[in-house]
Amino acid sequence: MSNEYDVVVIGSGPAGYVAAIRCAQLGFKTACIEKWLNKADKTVFGGTCLNVGCIPSKALLDSSHKYMDAQNHFEAHGISVGKVEVDVPAMIARKDKVVDQLTSGIKGLFTANKVDGVAGIGRVTGSNKVVVTNKDGQQQELVAKHIIIAAGSVPIDIPPTPVDHETIVDSTGALEFQEVPKRLGVIGAGVIGLELGSVWARLGAKVTVLEAMDDFLPLVDRQIAKESMKILTKQGLEIKMGSRVSGSKLAGKGAKKTVTVEYTDKDGEQTETFDKLIVAVGRRPFTDSLLDESVGVEKDERGFVKVNDQCATNIASIYAVGDVVRGPMLAHKGMEEGVMVAERLADKKTQVNYDLVPSVVYTHPEIAWIGKNEEELKAVGIETNIGVFPFVASGRALAADDADGMVKLIADAKTDRILGCHIVGASAADLLQQIVIAMEFSASAEDIGLTMFSHPALSEAVHEAALAANGHAIHIGNRKRRK
Ligand code: FAD
Ligand code: NAD
Fold first, then answer.
1. What is the DSSP pairing of strand 406-412 with strand 418-425?
2. Is the model's pLDDT at 480 over the cut of 80?
3. pLDDT digits (tens, 9 = 90+) for 344-365
4. What is the greatest pairwise CA distance in the chain?
5. Pocket of ligand 1 (CB under 6 A)
6. Catalytic site residue 146?
7. CA pair distance 91, 81, nearest whole angstrom
8. Which CATH number is 4-155+284-345 given?
9. Domain 168-281: what homologous superfamily?
10. Domain 365-482 top-level CATH class
11. pLDDT of residue 477
């Protein structure tokens, strides 16, 4: 393998592996460096997303949802299954198998696309040079016309609750419990806290989520956030808002080990004892020992590699994509950035539309949103027409006995152009995608209203919300009836 490349990508998470594959498809000689070692000490591709993020968390969300369904909802359908039990090690092993299948899949895609997967830690030592150190300490230098940094992110640690990987864990540890903790504490009611808190609550843990902020899911439309809070609380998650964690004490030994968390809320100082504690207070860009100072790649005050809208850094030959740069830390955002950089290197004019990055919290029901919410639009004085359709009025949702939540669609009152869509409900992620596409085409609420939707389908709720925005939904009473 010659050490000269058109493109060297550092990191094989969704931003890096997609960038590498697209570069190779476009005819560039490409290498992708990865340092991740699995439990068997083997290099694996796929980054946070495939190894300890999106995929394993969804595997456990899906398994625990099936368990909860069997336990609580089968009877209503006339199905009796006797005593439903959970085998946690088997559940974790299935999750690991899914991860193995997908990380091997990336290796296969690299081979098929002629991307050289290089094992080791990459360090940018010049504007066209990367030194790779493998696990045995051997080094090789790769020379590249272009370098794409896709080094991702890692969990943030907070001093009051240092992670010991046993009683106090981060998101990675929370995917590995071998039994259901009786009392589980979660710090942070963000995406990870709600998703992984839900997994263990469904399996029987008493889950308490401590959140420093007063507003639940502050980026989400208030009506949708309020409804989501109501549903998740009904499911047994105890979410304590305005609770700022100040310290923790470990006690006991072995299986009897506990952690007592100290926090302050509106009533003063509080303590609560847990068998396990998950710290989920956000992630930080990972640039540790990645860049030689002499190269001069600029970072911002929070450690993100500084890039423009096309993901170019201040050094002409170096780009950066994914969690290591500004913007939401989401796999799909990183993937599109990877494609954009590859295509721009091939002189195409590809541009990521940063106004339309969909967000999803994969609880059940899912919470999904795109575009602006009601409060943001009010704040800038834009007049809107808002259509809300509850799933309880959807025939398909009722047939499935899965009718919590609603679709809220917001259109500009003057032009009828769709400005945002906010959903809490079963399959919200997939339902939302219809509106993401519509918004990419600058659709109006009327365009969606005039589109034929299959019956019976959950997406009829999206159709009806669009009709409701103009005052003529068919299957609910309209607040503002219009002709
Ligand atoms: P990463 O996936 O972090 O990949 C970076 C890679 O670079 C890693 O493999 C790392 O080992 C490697 N690397 C770093 N430095 C070097 C170096 N110097 N040399 C060689 N290799 C290096 N996002 C979603 O969109 N949907 C979800 O459902 C979702 N669920 C999540 C659940 C959890 C529990 C977590 C933790 C995250 C989740 N995310 C989700 C976020 C998502 O995982 C990240 O946004 C995404 O992985 C970022 O991709 P990336 O390629 O930028 O970085
Ligand atoms: P987050 O930013 O979503 O939530 C962290 C929460 O912790 C915030 O609500 C914050 O107010 C709270 N917090 C911070 N310090 C605290 C303290 N001392 N005490 C109590 N609360 C505190 O971060 P996360 O949940 O760790 O997720 C990290 C990233 O991973 C997110 O940016 C997200 O985009 C990504 N992710 C995405 C998905 C998804 O797309 N479904 C799933 C998981 C993770």
1. antiparallel
2. no
3. 999 999 999 999 999 999 999 9
4. 74
5. 10-16, 33-36, 47-49, 53-54, 57, 121-122, 150-153, 171, 192, 286, 290, 322-324, 329-332, 334, 362
6. no
7. 19
8. 3.50.50.60
9. FAD/NAD(P)-binding domain (3.50.50.60)
10. alpha beta
11. 76
